[in-house]
Structure formats: C-alpha cells, structure tokens
Amino acid sequence: MRRWLAAPVAFAAAIGLSTLHTAPVAAQPKGEAPAEESFLTADGVQLKGLFHATTKDAATAPVVILLYPPGPDRDMTKGDWAGLAGRLNESGYHVFRFDWRGHGKSTDIKDPKKFWTNPFLNGGAVNFNGYIKGGPPKKPLKNELFFKDLSPTRADRYLPAYLNDLAAVRVHLDSKNDNKTLNCSSIYLIGAGDAATLGVAWLAAEWQRPAVFPKEGQLGVGVPGYDYVPQPLVGQLQTEGGQDISGAVWLSPSRPPSISEANAKKWISTYAPKIRENNPMLFLYADKDAVGKKQSEFFYNEVLVGDPRRAKAFNLNPIDQTFIKEVKGGNTLSGAKLLDNNSELKVQDTIIQFIAAIQKQRAKVPSKNRNFSTPYFINARDFGLTP
Q1: Phi, psi of 306 (to 5 degrees)
Q2: Of 107, 153, 198, 219, which is most buried by a Cβ count within 10 Å?
Q3: What superfamily in CATH does domain 8-383 come from?
Q4: Residue 289: what pLDDT?
Q5: Who wins on pLDDT, 172 or 80?
Q6: CA 137, CA 100: separation in Å to the nearest integer?
Q7: What is the pLDDT of residues 272-317, one digit of tens each?
Q8: What share of the chain is helix, strand, coil (3-state, %, to 5)?
C-alpha cells in the first residue's frame, strides 16, 4: 500500500481544489513540433501517435498519455490537446497522444491474418471483430479499418478491443524508456468521456501483469513468450505494471451502455483493488453538465468507493489523493471542450497542478529497463468484458 501523500489536505490545497483561483496561465510555449511515430498492436494494427518531448531532464522525465473518446469523426487533433501538451512540456513532462484503431491515421491492418484469426478478439465467445462490417466470412479480407466499418448500433460494444491499443502504447513507451528517452516509472493519463472507462479498465489490466518482462523460468513450461494479460507465471510478480501509473485526470467521464455498472465496479473490487490507494485520480465536470456530474460521481463513489462513509462501511481505507471537482463557469461544456477557454476556466492549470503535486513525491522513483520487445494482447474475457 502506497501512502506517499501523508497530508491530503495540503495536497488538495496545492492543486487548488478548494477553489479554481489558480495561477495565471503561462504563455503557450512554441517548442519543437511533435514527432510522428508508428507502432503495432498485438493483432497487427499499425497505430499512429505524436510524441511531444520536453527538454527538461528528458531521459528521466515522466510521460503523460492523452486519451480522447473513440467515436465517429474523432482523432487526436480534435480539441485543445496540443495546447495542453505544450503546457505539460513546459512543466517537464513528455506527452504522447495517438489515434485509436480505425481513427485518424491508425487505419492500416499490417497483419490481416493475425487481426482476423487471433483468439483474443475474434471468434468463439469473444468475437469483437464480428462487429466490423465486411469481415469474415466475407472475402477478401480487408487490410484497413475505419470507425465507420463498425455496425452503428454496436460501435460501443467494440470498446474493449481498444484496450489492446493501450497495451501497444505501453510497450511502445517502454521501448523508449529502455532507450533512455523517458521514464516509464511515472506515467500519467488524461482522458475525456468514454476514455475514462477505457483508462480504468486498462489500469485493472496493468495490475495483472509484470512491469518487467518475466525472467527465464518464470513463464510456464512450453510457453513461448509473454503473449497476453493476465497470463499465469511461475512464481509471484515482483512489480506490477499498475505501480507505474502515477495518476489520472478524467474530463466529463462516461460509461458506455454496453459496459454495466456492476462490471465496472469489479475492475476495482475483483481485479485490481490496489487502484484505490495507488493510482490517484481527478474527475472534472462542468457546473451545468448534469450527465458529467452523474458519471463522475459514479466513478468516484461506486467504482472507487471514494465516499468516506461508504468506504468505512466496506472496511476500506479512504482514498485521500483522489478528488471529484465541479468546474465553475464551464456551463455545459463536456470532455475535451473543457480544455478550451483556459484563461477563464483554468482547467489546464488545475490538471498541471494535480500532476505536479503527485510528481513531487515521485521525482526520485528510478527508471528501470522493461525488456518487452513485442506487444501483448489484453484478454478482455478475463476482465468480464465480452461482446
């Protein structure tokens, strides 16, 4: 149990959660253009991402992953994510954003056979690719995927497939960590809308896998490699991947209808109870966004059991470092739109202060080689996610 925030009241004050009268907005740093990068998922989809590098102690600097909610006509360039990335760079953080499969430039299926025939996403009881129009048994197999290829009434049921994109992002960043480009011992998540559901589900998966590639003899007899999560190992995990996720900020979080409230609650209670006390979160919603408020309260009170009275009833420790906050003056703005008009709402300031308060305590967490050379699947079935 990590209790590195010994003074939660001081922590709340440090990030301005008692008020939104935060520090003035700094001028947008110009800096260098982000580098476009490509990487593969375990099922052979080529994803495209942008890496915004900070110049401040680059080799040991933490990294922030930006997550927009999947959906029609969405990509990583929509919303003021670039402005937030610039602010984070100026504050000493690397930033990585990417397009989900079927979005933006992430449309190439480099290995169609692996994409259509793997047992984790296609076939049997877990056939997420069955939601894609024009897939097997129709011929020929397509080598591109677009969001419009999903059946409109079932697009949100494809959501768990995106967990494998996050797994690929993690391996990609781990390789940069091993090349001394960044420090994966401190990773932050910032997401909007349904990305909050994806992020929390992925966190549960991160607590079910080793942070460092298994040593010789730790894999089971006859197992060729670490291919999927969760995968049984011989012996105990030395360090879980979830320990590297330093914190998360969710803008107007939402839960798609295809994922039940009961299942979302299991991600903490059943699969990864360590999330509560080891992965601080901040939920933000606009003052007139009734849906955003309701969903934020669901994640905070029901999933994380953040209310002290409910936590006590379940014999749980309070989560002193996780907060839920209304953005005054935001009206009905939702999701990434809360990043706009930053000079008035100061949402970017609040985000940066929240992360800085955490990173102050994690500044001396050392980097270590991860040694993952290939992406792995996340077996959605083992986290209660089935089509």
Answers
A1: -80, -25
A2: 198
A3: Alpha/Beta hydrolase fold, catalytic domain (3.40.50.1820)
A4: 97
A5: 172
A6: 25
A7: 999 999 999 999 999 999 999 999 999 999 999 988 888 888 888 8
A8: 35, 15, 50
* Token representation of residue 273: 């109870």
DSSP string for 129-173: GGGBTT-TTSSSPPSB--GGGB-GGGGGGGGGGGHHHHHHHHHHH
Label the pairing between strands 108-109 and 45-52.
antiparallel
Query: Does residue 67 carry a pLDDT above 70?
Result: yes
Tokens found for residue 116: 């259509």
Inform me whether the pLDDT recorded for 338 exceeds 60.
yes
**Cα separation, 292 vs 326, whole angstroms:** 9
Q: What are the structural domain ranges in the chain?
A: 8-383
Q: Under the phi-then-psi rule, with left for phi > 0, alpha for psi from -120 to 50, and beta for the rest, what region is 315?
A: left
Q: Which residues pair with 327 in a beta bridge?
A: 286
Q: Examine the pLDDT at 136 and tell me if it is beyond 80.
A: no
Q: What is the pLDDT of residue 80?
A: 86
Reading the block at residue 18, the tokens are 């008692």
* CA max distance for the chain: 61
For residue 230, say if its preceding peptide bond is cis, omega within 30 degrees of 0: yes
Q: What is the dihedral of CA 347, 168, 383, 312, to 10 degrees?
A: -40
What rounded mean pLDDT belongs to the chain? 88
Determine contact, residues 267/200, Cβ cutoff 8 Å: yes
